[in-house]
Amino acid sequence: MQIFVKTLTGRTLTLQVDSQDTIAKVKSLIEEQEPGFYQHQQKLLLGRSQLDDDWRLHNGDVQEGCTLYLLLRTIPMRVFVKTLQDKTVTLETNPPETVDNVLAKLEEQEGIEACRHRLKFGSKLLNAGCTLLQQHIQHKSTLTLCPRILPITIRRQTGRAMLIEVNLSDTVARVKQKIREQEGIPAEQQTLKLHAKDLMDHLTVCDYNITEGCSLDMILCPVTQVFLKTLGGTTVSLETKPSDTVGNILAKVAEKERYPLQHYYLECEAKKLDTRQTLAEQNVPNKATLYLCLRPIPITVRRQPTGRAILVEVKISDTVASVKQKIREQEGIPAEQQTLKLHAKDLMDHLTVCDYNITEGCSLDMILRPVTQVFVKTPRGKTVGLETQPSDTVGNILVQCAEKERYPLQHYYLQIDARKLDTGLTLLEQNVPNKATLQLCLRLFPITVRQRTGQAILMHVNLSDTIASVKQKIYEEAGILAEQQTLKLHAKDLMDHLTVCDYNITEGCSLDMILRHGQGRR
Questions:
Q1: Could you say which architecture CATH assigns to the domain 445-515?
Q2: From CA 237, how far away is CA 219, in angstroms rounded?
Q3: What are phi and psi of 195, to 5 degrees?
Q4: Which DSSP symbol is given to 410?
Q5: For the chain, which residues make up each domain, given as ranges?
Q6: Are strands 124-125 and 190-194 parallel, antiparallel or unpaired?
Q7: What are the φ/ψ torsions at residue 263 (nearest 5 degrees)?
Q8: What ranges make up the beta strands (E) of 343-478?
Q9: What was the pLDDT predicted at 390?
Q10: CA 253 centroid distance within chain
Q11: pLDDT value at position 185?
């Protein structure tokens, strides 16, 4: 026979039974039709009477076409909800509760707005009006919170409308991307408006309170082209809209540059452009060339010990040497006399304003070094005057001298009154007085001269020595007449008029000596 079972949700189940079937058998048939309606939770009523499990249908006066009412015993259970922030929330609930009730509990417990979210179990989106039991959610199941998908309408200027599905967390930029994917319209050409107000790319659907069925207007902006000359001298092409602000363009460009955005500005035809205004508002034409420039940073330089302050404009790329040059141009103080300090630390000439993190309004201290003069006599007999400070190392002065000489720096040294000066010490530390005369000398280095007998002679030469003068030194050392000597390097005869430098003879080098006309000695 056929009977009907009506649930609390209003659904009616149809069952084929026998009058000899027990109520327990009927409950098992219900569980087969409705997984999750477990037998031990079911209560069946006929009228107001509860039917016991061991009763047979005919005992309970259940006849063909009867309607039984199904109640479910409430058994508390726990479910877990994973939020958009990857946080897991534990909720106490019951199988007959609807998904909407679970969302309401989540809102009460965590402050997450129920109307803006939906729940998923696995990959299946849960029906908000159905119970946990109906959707087979069991004790300790994990549900996933997701944004509610909203259908909205995008209206083009032509009047054509398109339907787009968005969720509340989508940014306006993401909505434009969805339009591009659906319609092929580049995002940079789209301007979206709500109630005639432009929507900002970084804000979300939620921020603008865009709800289901809402309509946005889309204005298509014509694309223009500008050329941008970077600090490195490279010219790049940019596609822009007349409605783009200079700030928008600057942000795109600065992403690929070395310094932070705030250190740059753009100019066109020597006119600085306002970052808040659009290209159109500043009459920047199509295919115009813009120049990327570094902003000047005002800093204060305090002279010590007087405390007098000088205002100097620098750029973040300026070296300390160029800052000193700006002070020289402004105040007439030679750069070599300036020592600049930040927080009592000397600044190195080759490092930049950026390297020292010098920012707008920063103060530097300037110490002036007294100027002294020394004279340097070169190997060629020429005397030159140099302005120095007592704190200059001999190495610093040697570098200046060697720049104008023939041989590399490492082949020179300085001496005063036949005393060799230490390159690592200052003039002051070595008691070099003002207006002293220093001698620039070539360093001697050892070489070996090998005779056929196997005997070796150790000689000291310098780069400017000719082969003839090397032979003379051998004569003075070993008594072998110069005219009897033939010197060879790698089996090649050395010419008297050429120098040690010409033959690239270096420290530790070995020469072979052949004696002509016997082995005459003095």
A1: Roll (3.10)
A2: 24
A3: 55, 45
A4: G
A5: 2-72, 77-147, 150-220, 224-294, 297-368, 372-442, 445-515
A6: unpaired
A7: -90, 5
A8: 345-346, 363-368, 372-377, 383-388, 412-416, 419-420, 437-442, 445-451, 456-461
A9: 66
A10: 14
A11: 83
Say if residues 102 and 93 touch (Cβ distance below 8 Å).
yes
User: Is it true that 2-72 and 150-220 share their CATH fold?
Assistant: yes
- The CATH fold of domain 372-442: Ubiquitin-like (UB roll) (3.10.20)
Could you name the CATH architecture of 297-368?
A: Roll (3.10)
Give the full edge-to-edge strand order of the sheet including 197-198.
Answer: 161-167, 149-156, 215-220, 190-194, 197-198
424 three-state secondary structure: coil
The CATH class for the domain spanning 2-72 reads: alpha beta
CA nearest neighbour of 365 among 306, 315, 297: 306
Residue type at 333 in one-letter notation: I
pLDDT at residue 371, rounded to an integer: 66
Give which of 51, 42, 49 is closest to 73, Cα–Cα. 42
User: What would the CATH number be for the domain defined by 77-147?
Assistant: 3.10.20.90
Stretch among 206-215, 217-226, 377-386, 474-483 having the lowest mean pLDDT? 217-226
The pLDDT value recorded for residue 439 is 94
Model confidence pLDDT, tens digit, residues 112-151: 888 778 898 988 888 888 888 778 888 899 999 888 788 9
Provide the whole-model pTM. Answer: 0.36
Cα(449)–Cα(474) distance, integer angstroms = 9
Over residues 194-203, the mean pLDDT reads 93
- Within 10 angstroms of residue 19's Cβ, the number of other Cβ atoms is 12
Burial class (CB in 10 A: 0-12, 13-18, 19+), 461: buried
Sheet holding 289-294, edge to edge: 235-240, 224-229, 289-294, 264-268, 271-272
The torsion angle over the Cα atoms of residues 493, 494, 495 and 499, rounded to 10 degrees, is 170
Q: Report the distance separating Cα 252 and Cα 275, nearest Å.
A: 13
- Per-residue model confidence as pLDDT tens digits over 266-319: 998 889 999 998 887 787 887 889 999 998 999 999 988 888 899 999 998 899
CA pair distance 44, 70, nearest whole angstrom: 5
- pLDDT exceeds cutoff 80 at 358: yes
- 84 falls in which pLDDT band (50, 70, 90)? confident
Q: Residue 401 and residue 403: Cα distance in Å, rounded?
A: 6
CA atoms of 519 and 72, how far apart (whole Å): 128
Say if CB 488 and CB 511 are below 8 A apart.
yes
Task: Tell me the CATH class for 150-220.
Answer: alpha beta
pLDDT band at 242 (very low <50, low <70, confident <90, very high): low
Quickly tell me which residue has 């089996």 as its tokens.
Answer: 491
Exposed / middle / buried, residue 353 (Cβ in 10 Å: 0-12, 13-18, 19+): buried
Q: For domain 224-294, which CATH number applies: 3.20.20.70, 3.10.20.90, 3.40.50.460, 3.40.50.720?
A: 3.10.20.90
